[in-house]
Design brief:
This protein has 4 helices and no strands. Helix content is 60%, strand content 0%. The protein is flat. By secondary structure, the protein is mainly alpha-helical.
Length: 140
């Protein structure tokens, strides 16, 4: 324990009471991080292929649930604007430009949100701006 001698070192707030680990039995009140740092800690348990495949299936299913309505309505919108003959080419162009913008925009705005210092937090201003922009863009 570090030496806390100096002004105010003898006050109870300056020296909080920490019970020794041996008095607690040592095992019951440890966190997993503390247990992992011990020299004789057991190796972490690996997950099986069953859990990995279930997790992958759940992830893909969730993406499809949210992506399918967007793709269908985007195709309808492009078809109504460009006509049925030009719809496939126009849809490919719109989807390709969207993917290229996302490829450049996601890292840029992610870095910008990481550097945001606001009393509301790092992400909240960006979430509100995206909500307002998406709502206004969806009205057209």
């Amino acid at each position: 324990m570090p030496d806390l001698s100096g002004p105010g070192a003898s006050t109870p707030a300056a020296r909080p009471y920490l019970p020794p680990a041996a008095a607690l039995g040592g095992v019951e009140h440890r966190t997993e991080a503390e247990a992992a740092l011990e020299p004789n800690s057991p190796a972490p348990r690996r997950v099986g292929w069953g859990l990995i495949s279930q997790y992958a299936l759940a992830s893909v299913s969730t993406c499809l649930v949210f992506l399918a309505p967007v793709l269908v309505t985007l195709a309808w919108k492009v078809s109504s604007l460009a006509g049925i003959e030009r719809a496939p080419d126009s849809l490919a162009l719109v989807a390709g430009i969207g993917a290229l913008l996302a490829m450049a925009g996601n890292p840029f705005f992610g870095k910008m949100s990481d550097r945001t210092e606001s009393r509301r937090g790092m992400r909240r201003p960006w979430m509100v701006t995206g909500l307002v922009g998406g709502s206004l863009g969806g009205r057209s």
